[in-house]
Fold these 4 entries.
Entry 1:
Amino acid sequence: MKNNIIFDLDGTLTESGTGIKNSVRYTLQHYGLPMEDDESLNRYVGPPLVNSFQEYMGFTEQQAMEAIVVYRSYFTTKGMFENRVYDGVEDMLTALKKAGKRMFIATGKPTVYSQQILEHFGLASYFECVCGISLKESTMEKDELITQVLEFAHLTPEECVMIGDRKFDMMGANKVGVTPIGVTYGYGSREELKTAGAHTIVDSVKQLQELLLQ
């Protein structure tokens, strides 16, 4: 397996759904919109919020940007840490680092929040860089974020793999020529990952570790 590993964050390293869904609930309540059930709220975990707020709440792009400010008022004080690291992830990262793997983060979450989350859970030292969006940006495509990692690390796409749980991770990796590996323990289905062009799909952190150490 290749020595340069790019990880998504939400749904790949951390089970962040509780905090994200509670932040969306807070946003729905703020705007007086009908409250969605827990299963429906899963669709907000992973995709860029500006897109989800337009698609699921019926907002214009400008309204969605304003709603993100509301969302962040909850997320930055509570939701960010209503979160946990998946079982086995820290052991996996330790084994990968010991094996000489270089590791990076490419996430649609703001960089500043991602860094805080990684530091909070003691994972920051495993990663050479965290490439996310700025607080002023509404969104960036996953291929753009992956490209940022490649440029930072002076790597070619052929030298890297991208690990993620949603179609955006697979599609972004394929777009730039990085090998996409899907994980089903996050928030996307096997069918979603397969349709989006996953090269390989694993069902657990243990399977992922074994694959990456091959």
Entry 2:
Amino acid sequence: MIRLRSVKKSYRQGATSVLACAVDQLDIAKAEQVALVGRSGTGKTTLLHMLAGILRPDSGEVEVVGQRLDQMGESARDRHRGRHIGMVYQTFNLLQPFTALENVLLGALFGRGAGGDAKHRAAELLSKVGLGDRLHHRPSEMSVGQVQRVAICRALINDPELILMDEPLGNQDRSTGGQVLDLLLQMASDGGKTVVMVTHDPESATRMQRTVDLATLRGVEVVA
């Protein structure tokens, strides 16, 4: 599902080049649930964005769902992400003027399309996560836990093979967030989906099958 070899990504700070992420080797199999952990500055989010195709590495190989993202242009990576990858952001990134149903349908625009079938899928997903009576509520009219569930449904609307999560519990209490995370992991497991989560929270990491610690040995996979 995921294969990285000799990957490096740097950023410019004035005349200086700063190494943001280095991964010598990383392999994640289909249907695995993996946590990427490490202190701030070890490149967790940069790595996640390379897996999503949002960023392209400066060097190395990034293969995701059978495609070499490091060899693709930006538009091709965008299409690949829409068809094969679902993302759950730390701040959820829902659009406030739109209802729960509309926010989920927006995710379909980048994959299969937002036709009548997508509307049915969106409503079904929201019902599965206990929001069948909140389809027409806006984010401001829902709790943080409910908003997170909408974000999860948006990530699942195109039936992606890979789900990427960036600190999904960072903005809510552990009890509510943990319950929603467990729900997502169960749904992913039932569908045979691969899940990769960036987190600095050890408790969240224990919910995953495997942990890759980028802080311990930068550029080397460490399994816990």
Entry 3:
Amino acid sequence: MNEAIGFGFIVMGIAFDFFGCLGLVRFPDVYNRLHSSIKCVTLGTSSILFGLFLIKGFSAGGVIALLCILFLVLTAPVSAHVLARSAHKFGTKLCKGSVCDKYAEDKDALS
């Protein structure tokens, strides 16, 4: 039973990774692509690792998978924020269809 659920999580993770990669190709600017890739890493890869944990159990491989999930969940959003903030400070423009620019609003409020 655990193996079937584990394979389900692995398939779901592969689907997230696929659609995240598709977003990297299809989205118009750096910020949308970054959002897509971080969702891909956080949800897709974590689902694959959780599926591996369900299959392996509390063996060495399963515990390492849980530790990798913890590391990904803690570091991927922070790195995405740093990359987006750096791109904005460098002057990378948003696409024409973007509705708001919160970084520019914060910058204007501080000035």
Entry 4:
Amino acid sequence: MKPESMDKVFQALASSVRRQMLDIVRVQPGCSVGEVARHFDVTRIAVMKHLAVLEHAGLLISEKKGRTRALYFNTVPIQMIHDRWSTEFSALWAGKLTAFKYRMEQSS
């Protein structure tokens, strides 16, 4: 992955609003722009601008269906960034430590 592509991903993920939008699309694959916009107290144009940033970073795939657009979360750019800085060995231990952290957080 080129550095400028990674920059776009990090910039897109820097916004908590855009991360919330990705969460919505992840949970509801194929949802429309209107369905995403219902979760926010901003104009539809503002939502569309955020979605455009996500799409430009490759994190969102938009498919035209009639008069609406179906939105899908694309995890590939995030996985490519993860792969760049991790090895098989570190991924194994990171996964175990993450699972342990989640268990501890649930028990408190």
